[in-house]
Every structure is written in structure tokens, then in C-alpha cells.
Specification:
The complex is a heterodimer of chains A (424) and B (246).
Chain A (H helix, E strand, L loop, with lengths): L4 H6 L4 H20 L8 H9 L4 H11 L4 E4 L6 H6 L3 E4 L8 H5 L8 H11 L4 H5 L2 E5 L3 H10 L5 E4 L7 H22 L5 H24 L9 H11 L4 H20 L11 E6 L8 H8 L3 E6 L4 H4 L10 H13 L10 H13 L4 E7 L3 H16 L4 E6 L6 H15 L2
Parallel strand pairs in A: 1-2, 1-3, 3-4, 5-6, 5-7, 7-8
Helix pairs in contact in A: 3-12, 7-9, 10-16, 11-12, 11-13, 14-19
Chain B lengths: L2 E6 L3 E7 L3 E8 L4 H9 L6 E5 L3 H5 L5 E2 L2 H12 L5 E5 L4 E6 L5 E6 L8 H10 L7 H6 L12 H13 L4 H23 L5 E4 L6 H11 L3 E2 L7 H11 L1
Parallel strand pairs in B: 1-4, 4-5, 6-9, 9-10
Antiparallel strand pairs in B: 1-2, 2-3, 6-7, 7-8
Classes of the chains: A alpha/beta (424), B alpha/beta (246).
Chain lengths: 424, 246
């Protein structure tokens, strides 16, 4: 067992508080993941990564920094990882998924702010996330008002660069986003002292594309009946994609998919063929937010897809063909990022189309719409989602919750009743 | 062949025994150790099958019950047994408020339930009764004795309690405050009902239906004749017993 304490000290973590966090995680992980029956063997790697969540990967980042490289933190799928990679920096998704860091945030932020914002902010002010500590700067975005204003406050604690995401998917919006990409390029080049070239960007995009393709492959496998992997495990893989080394991660996901292909060939699944198949749609679920999936699957459902930033919104849309010039590539990246059907856009009817397509092609018995409390964009969009699903006679359960455990009983009642209603 | 349904709610535990028809029932407070209370309630009794429902159903599942069913389905089954033409069930319980829409065949079609917030639940009334130094069983009749209502703006239990306290300090009639509190809770429940689009017959059950003021205001607000069963608290337990009988 490697002692990471010297590294954590170097990162100025609050060691005492950080110990509490790391003590809570194994028990929670074990009871959520390791008790599942018939897990794929290739999940071993992802178990290992979680086991080393604040260890080995952080060490890799620190080694990269020691060799003169930069580490860039991010919170949102709108931030293009390939642009960061192309500048020789490592992009890393930051911690934002636990109640643990919320009290620290509430010392500063209004309480009626969504849990994701509070958790991410709390990790910085509480000094309990080695990733944000290791990052040379973080890139924020303007995907909701809460985040937008939080980044202003975060900038008082950590170097922060905010890129503007347009509110409409129009040519003007694309122009704006393209200008933001150029600005980000300049920022990255200034920070790293390296030029982003057509070659380095093409290579970086290829690496990120390979990762997205692997995730798409895993997602497609979940169409199978019986489904060969649990929703919890598939969600975990997507969550890990935000901070693991992209090349190694891609190999491991493909190895997992190979194993799942064999399972499918034998008709093996993790749930019985008559287990209700559920699509989860809505707010992102940052690691270690496994609350809803756990309730659903412990109650006998199997989650076969996430229409989410920790799901299809991250990997569904690949980079369009372009002429290979730097300008052409930046344009293609803008087009790709703006195909993220996030509720920050108005209108955002493409997301409703996505949900209907997923419901049909993944043969779901029902959809669970998940909004984080105070996540106004998704909570409001749920109204249109509900209407569209009702027209297609697809049952919907709307859940609004946060990271706390005090409503688990009520959620379980709703989920049980919903599953009784949709059980095939 | 006696079957039983056990509804372990947040405030009350209900046991219903069923043979050809309902043979017996018991209602008692949940208390701090519901499992122990259930064991005592069941001591010396034996049933061919027992189904648990309510907030504590999974607690009971391990040792006491043969099967569990959600309260939403239990209330639906119980409601249809009592009134075969029932299409909408409103259940105001201790910490939950649930509205369920039934198909013509009695299946659960859609439902709404409050989240962790206690507005619109029995708990809200309990807290407000305490602020007015009343028992929760008295607050409904007390409200009905009012000549006019004071408007309560807060639906949050915590804020509504402080609002009630400041109204008392301002010298408002306690009955008028009580009526205002009932109007606030009914607004909340009616909103949930209207989101689903209720169909008649509408059954009002759960402990909340024991409150005469809630019954009257909710019926007025929705513009329908609410049906309140003779024992509104046992509908869930009855439904569970019916599921047990199969």
C-alpha cells in the first residue's frame, strides 16, 4: 500500500477532513457495487480505479506536473478535452458528487443552490479534492446561472477561466462559441507554453474520439435483453471517463465490451429478462452520486441508459469530418460540443427526440426523470419531457432530489410504485 | 384462511385481517421502534399470508411479512375493493401525500407524491396544532368554527409555523389561523390532484381524511364530492391484505 500522505500534504489537502472522506467511501462502494450479482470480471479495473480514487491517478497528474506539464480541471462536458490535451495538458473532471463537501460550501454559497454546484465548490474551499488542488487552473462555463455565479466566487480561491456557452443553437451562437474556443486555445497556449497545432489537435481529438466510441459501444450493448451489465456499473464507467487516463481507459472499456459480447452470445444477463428496463434522464450524476441507480436496481429494475452528461450527452455525438486545418478542426469541435442537448439551451427539443429514441431503441418500460433540487433548467424541461412521453404512452416518474440520504425512504416508495406500474 | 395486511406508516401502524370479508383491524401509533410494535401486534396470531406496506414495509419484510407492496398500490387496491368505481385516490398520511389515478380496470395509471417536504401532510397539521396548543385531532373542528380565515403564505412547515406564531402575536383569532393553515395545505394537495387530472369517483383516505376541515375545503377546492370511507386510515392495510389473499 503506497502512502500518499506526503503527496496530499504537498497538495495542501485538509488531511483530517480528507481522511473522513476516504474512510466513508469504501463501505459505500462495497454495499453499492460489490454486492451486485454476476458482475463482469472486467469491472475489476474500475473497482481498482475507485479504490485509488485519490491515489494513483493523482500521482500520475503530479508526475506530469513534475515533468513540466499542466493539469486543467473542468466540471462540464461543454469544455473540449481534446483542446486541452493538444496543448500537452491533462484535462480532469473534478469532484462534485457527494454530500460530504456540501456543508463547507454552505458556509459561503446560498443553501438553495443545487448539490452539484455546492459539492464542487465545497471540495475547493474545504481542500478535500486532490484533483482541484493539483489543477493549474479550472475551466468553468455558463451552463446555468448557479454555476456562472459560483465560478466568480471560486476565482477567489483558485485560478478560473470561464468560457461562455451560448443559450441558443443558432449561427450566431456558434460564432460566439467558436470565439470562446479560440480564446481558450490562447489561454492554454499561454499557460503551457506550447502551440496547439493541426497535428497535435488531430491526435488529441483521435484519443478522445476513441474514448467516446468505446463508451458508445458499451451503451449500445445495453440494448440487449437480458442486459449483460448493470446500470450502476455502466454509470460508474462513464463517471470514471472524466478523470482517468483516456488511452488506458479506452482499452479497459473495450475489454469490458468484449466480455459483454461473449455474455450476450450466451444470453447471460445481470437481471432477469422480465426486470423492468428503465432509462434515466436529466441532471448529471457526478461520482460518487449513485443514489438513484442504487434505489432503482435494488428495487428490481435495471437501468439500460442515461440520457445525461454522465451518459449519452457526453459520448453520443462524434466530431464531424473537416478539412484537417486548425480552423477546420476548431469548427468541427464547436459543432460537436453544440450538439450536446443540454437543458441550458432554448429551445432544446433535440433532447426530447433523444429521450424518445432511447426509450424506443433500448426498449424501456419506463423513464425516470432526474432533477437535482434547484436545477431549474432540467426541472422545467421535465414538463415538456412528460408531455412528449405521455403522447407516446411511455410511463414517466419525476424525481427531484439531492445528495442527502434523508429522502431515500420516500424515493423508494415512489420507485416501488412505479415499478409495480410498469413491470412487463 | 385468514390473510393480513400490515401498513407501517410514519405515524400509525394498521393491521387488517381478511377472510371472506374484513374480519378485524387495529390502528396504533408507530412509536420509536415500529418493528417491536409490529411484533407485539402480531404476537399469537397466525395468518396464511401477510403482506406489508407503508414506510416500514422493507423493515418488516425480512422477518414478519411474506411480501411487500408499495402504499400507492395498496391504497389503490383497498380503494377499489371499497368502491369499485373509484378512479382517483388521495391519501394524506403522516409524512406523505399521494394522489393516484386509476385505470377503469383499477390499475395504477399515474401518481404524484410530495418529496421530502412535509407541506401537505399530516405532519404539517401536527406541527401547526402544537403551535396553537391543540391536539391534531381537534385542529380541523377548531378551524371550522372560524368566522374568517387568515391568509398563510408559507407552505413550508418551518416557515408556516413561524408565520402562525407571528399571527398569534398579532392577536389574530386562533381559529382563523387554523382555517388559514388548512387552506394552505389544501392548495398544495389540490395542486397535486390537478396535475394528474382527477376522475370521479375521488376517494379521500389516510389519517388526513379524519380532519373535517380538510374534507370540506378539499372537496370545495376540487369541485367534486369526495368519498371518505368509514375508516380512512385502514385503506392501505386493507389493500395489503387483499394482495395477500390474491
Amino acid at each position: 500500500m503506497v502512502d500518499y500522505r506526503p503527496m496530499w500534504t504537498e497538495l495542501d489537502l485538509d488531511l483530517e477532513k480528507h481522511d473522513m472522506l476516504l474512510q466513508a467511501l469504501p463501505g459505500m462502494y462495497e454495499s453499492t457495487f460489490l454486492t451486485q450479482e454476476n458482475r463482469p470480471e472486467a469491472m475489476d479495473y474500475f473497482d481498482f480505479v475507485v479504490g485509488e480514487i485519490h491515489g494513483l491517478r493523482v500521482k500520475e497528474l503530479m508526475d506530469h506536473k513534475a515533468a513540466g506539464g499542466k493539469v486543467v480541471g473542468l466540471y462540464c462536458v461543454f469544455v473540449p478535452e481534446d483542446l486541452i490535451l493538444a496543448a500537452g495538458a491533462i484535462p480532469v473532471g473534478l469532484c462534485a458528487g457527494t454530500q460530504f463537501s456540501v456543508p463547507d460550501a454552505e458556509d459561503v454559497l446560498p443553501r438553495n443552490t443545487c448539490a452539484l454546484i455546492k459539492s464542487s465548490f465545497g471540495f475547493k474551499v474545504g481542500r478535500t479534492c486532490p484533483y482541484v488542488q493539483a489543477s493549474d487552473f479550472v475551466i468553468g462555463e455558463t451552463t446555468c446561472d448557479g454555476k456562472k455565479k459560483m465560478y466568480e466566487i471560486l476565482a477567489g480561491y483558485h485560478p478560473t477561466h470561464v468560457m461562455e456557452v451560448p443559450q441558443k443553437k443558432t449561427p450566431l451562437g456558434r460564432e460566439l462559441f467558436l470565439a470562446e474556443l479560440r480564446g481558450l486555445r490562447a489561454k492554454l497556449e499561454a499557460e503551457t507554453g506550447m502551440d496547439i497545432t493541426a497535428d497535435s489537435l488531430a491526435q488529441a481529438t483521435a484519443a478522445i474520439e476513441a474514448k467516446r466510441r468505446a463508451l458508445k459501444r458499451l451503451h449500445a450493448i445495453r440494448k440487449a435483453r437480458p442486459v449483460p451489465i448493470s446500470g450502476l456499473d455502466a454509470l460508474l464507467v462513464t463517471q470514471i471517463s472524466f478523470y482517468d487516463d483516456p488511452v488506458r481507459f479506452t482499452e479497459k472499456v473495450n475489454a469490458l465490451c468484449d466480455e459483454l459480447d461473449v455474455r450476450m452470445g450466451k444470453g447471460e444477463g445481470v437481471a432477469t429478462a422480465d426486470a423492468p428496463r428503465v432509462l434515466v434522464s436529466g441532471s448529471p450524476m457526478a461520482i460518487p452520486n449513485w443514489k438513484l441507480h442504487r434505489i432503482l436496481e435494488e428495487s428490481g429494475a435495471v437501468v439500460v441508459g442515461e440520457e445525461s452528461c454522465t451518459g449519452t450527452r457526453y459520448f453520443d455525438y462524434l466530431t464531424p469530418e473537416n478539412d484537417g486545418s486548425l480552423t477546420g478542426q476548431l469548427g468541427a469541435i464547436a459543432d460537436r460540443q453544440l450538439e450536446t442537448h443540454c437543458a441550458c439551451f432554448t429551445p432544446n427539443d433535440e433532447r426530447i427526440e433523444d429521450i424518445l429514441t432511447l426509450a424506443r431503441e433500448w426498449a424501456v418500460d419506463g423513464v425516470v426523470h432526474y432533477s437535482l433540487q434547484f436545477c431549474h433548467t432540467f426541472a422545467n424541461e421535465a414538463v415538456k419531457v412528460e408531455k412528449a412521453l405521455a403522447e407516446q404512452d411511455i410511463p414517466l416518474l419525476r424525481i427531484e432530489t439531492d445528495y442527502g440520504d434523508e429522502d431515500v425512504g420516500q424515493l423508494k416508495t415512489r420507485v416501488d410504485a412505479f415499478l409495480e406500474m410498469i413491470r412487463p | 384462511m385468514t390473510c393480513a395486511g400490515l401498513d407501517i406508516g410514519s405515524r400509525t401502524i394498521v393491521l387488517v385481517e381478511l377472510d371472506e370479508g374484513l374480519t378485524d383491524f387495529a390502528v396504533l401509533d408507530t412509536g420509536p421502534d415500529p418493528l417491536d410494535r409490529c411484533r407485539r401486534l402480531l404476537a399469537g396470531k397466525s395468518y396464511s399470508r401477510l403482506v406489508a406496506t407503508g414506510y416500514g414495509r422493507h423493515l418488516a419484510a425480512a422477518t414478519l411479512a411474506d411480501e411487500v407492496v408499495s402504499e400507492i398500490r395498496a391504497y389503490a387496491v383497498g380503494a377499489r375493493y371499497l368502491y369499485p368505481d373509484c378512479r382517483t385516490v388521495i391519501d394524506v398520511g403522516g409524512q406523505d401525500c399521494k394522489v393516484t389515478l386509476l385505470s377503469d380496470g383499477g390499475e395504477v395509471r399515474k401518481f404524484e407524491m410530495n418529496d421530502r417536504c412535509a407541506a401537505g401532510t399530516g405532519r404539517f397539521l401536527e406541527v401547526m396544532a402544537r403551535a396553537l396548543e391543540l391536539d391534531v385531532s381537534q385542529i380541523g373542528d377548531h378551524a371550522l368554527s372560524a368566522t374568517g380565515a387568515v391568509r398563510i403564505n408559507s407552505l413550508c412547515t418551518v416557515f408556516a409555523e413561524s408565520e402562525a406564531v407571528s399571527l398569534i402575536a398579532r392577536g389574530e383569532e386562533s381559529s382563523a389561523i387554523a382555517l388559514g393553515l388548512h387552506e394552505a395545505i389544501v392548495t398544495r394537495i389540490a395542486g397535486m390532484v390537478r396535475r394528474l387530472g382527477p376522475r370521479e369517483r375521488v376517494l379521500f383516505a389516510g389519517g388526513g381524511a379524519l380532519n373535517a376541515c380538510l374534507r370540506r375545503l378539499l372537496g370545495q377546492k376540487l369541485g367534486v364530492d369526495l368519498t371518505v370511507p368509514e375508516q380512512p386510515q385502514i385503506v392501505g392495510g386493507l389493500g395489503a391484505a387483499l394482495v395477500a389473499r390474491g
